[in-house]
Write a structure and sequence with these properties.
With about 350 residues, the chain is α+β, with helices and mostly antiparallel strands. The protein has one domain (about 15-335): Jelly Rolls. It contains eight helices and 15 strands. The strands form two sheets. Strands 1, 2, 3, 4, 5, 6, 9, 11, 12, 13, 14 and 15 form a twelve-stranded mixed sheet that branches. A hairpin with a 2-residue loop joins strand 14 and strand 15. The longest helix is centred in the first third of the chain and has 17 residues, at about 75-90. The protein binds 2-oxoglutaric acid. 2-oxoglutaric acid binds near residues 158, 162, 164 and 280.
Length: about 350
């Protein structure tokens, strides 16, 4: 038992977030045993068309769905210009991460603009990114899967692949309740096999979670070590092998979206051609009725352990789609107003 566990015994007495099979507890209709019947029934009643019924059925079985969306060409070019301007101006109210926690852009080093770098909440800086963050075509599917109004909580822009190992989002991204989490991944250019495509394991959303503590699916960096995280990776690999599940990688055209179930194992593969970019935009969503704020942690100064934990309740809205402003940007607005 650790020192912290001895002085705060209630730390370990959180209600379990996992069911008897080790799956994340979920009240979403798509996670109920009769989900396929519900889809068939809605199709029979004419509430959803053939394509939508097929896509929802695929999502329920495989844990993801691919949908092509129409995005005007200027959005792609405006976004690219905004990213170039961002790296030139380095504002303090946008954050990025390069092998670290999120750091303010004002501390960015030009040499960090390379594979595995990610920009957080570009949607507060770029109108083009905001139009993707609050994209009606994607929201329509997210709303169908949740069965209620969604809220976009966070965006991530990748100029290259993340090179992140296979993981499940709820282990790191906390929503209220934890199962109310979906993600969309949008290809900002054609994605071939050599640029380090997105990888995922179809069907893995129904595999049990590695318990970091009793009934605890989340990693807690104050008590879990890299060894615990590695054990979780081995656990996932073992369960995929036992279930005969295989890795797939996403090669696709610009404008294709992949929406994944909260528990789908996914990550970023390594490029075989380092000269290639792999531009993509990821958005996380929860449900508007339950998620009252978003939060992020930012390193106060590069190389320093001190971290600011910021929250944001400020909602942006477009075409009936809602999403949170970034905590970092919202804190700057508050500081300016006071
Ligand atoms: O695009 C990628 O390489 C992976 C993104 C990812 O894993 C995530 O956003 O959770």
């Amino acid at each position: 038992m650790s020192f912290l566990d001895r002085i705060f015994p209630s730390r370990n007495q959180q209600p379990s977030s996992l069911d008897k099979k080790g799956l994340l507890l979920s009240d979403l209709w798509i996670d109920q045993p009769d989900a396929q019947e519900q889809i068939a029934e809605r199709h029979r009643r004419g509430e959803i068309d053939d394509v939508t019924a097929e896509r929802l059925a695929h999502f329920e079985k495989q844990g993801y769905v691919r949908i092509p969306i129409d995005i005007p060409d200027e959005i792609y070019s405006d976004l690219q210009n905004d990213v170039d301007t961002l790296w030139r101006d380095k504002p303090s109210d946008v954050a990025y991460a390069y092998h670290s926690l999120l750091t303010r852009f004002s501390d960015a080093k030009d040499e960090h603009r390379q594979p595995s770098c990610r920009v957080a909440d570009l949607h507060t800086y770029s109108a083009a990114a905001r139009s993707l963050f609050l994209n009606r075509q994607i929201f329509d599917y997210i709303e169908l899967i949740f069965g209620e109004k969604p809220v976009a909580t966070q965006s991530l822009y990748f100029e290259w692949g993340s090179q992140q190992g296979l993981h499940r989002d709820p282990v790191y991204v906390q929503m209220v309740p934890p199962s109310h989490l979906l993600a969309s991944w949008l290809a900002l250019e054609d994605i071939g096999p050599d640029c380090g495509p997105l990888i995922y394991v179809p069907g893995s959303h129904r595999l049990p979670y590695y318990p970091f503590g009793k009934g605890r699916h989340t990693v807690d960096f104050s008590r879990d070590s890299q060894k615990d995280i590695d054990k979780g990776v081995q656990w996932d690999e073992k369960h995929c092998r036992a279930a005969g599940l295989e890795l797939e990688s996403l090669t696709c055209k610009q404008g294709e979206v992949l929406i994944w179930h909260h528990s789908l194992l996914h990550g970023g593969s390594y490029p075989t051609d380092n000269s290639l970019t792999r531009k993509s935009f990821v958005v996380h969503y929860s449900t508007l009725s339950t998620m009252k704020m978003t939060q992020n942690s930012y390193v106060r100064e590069p190389g320093q352990p001190a971290v600011d934990h910021l929250t944001c309740r400020r909602l942006l809205e477009s075409d009936g789609c809602h999403g949170f402003d970034s905590p970092l940007h919202a804190s700057t607005l508050t500081a300016e107003a006071s």
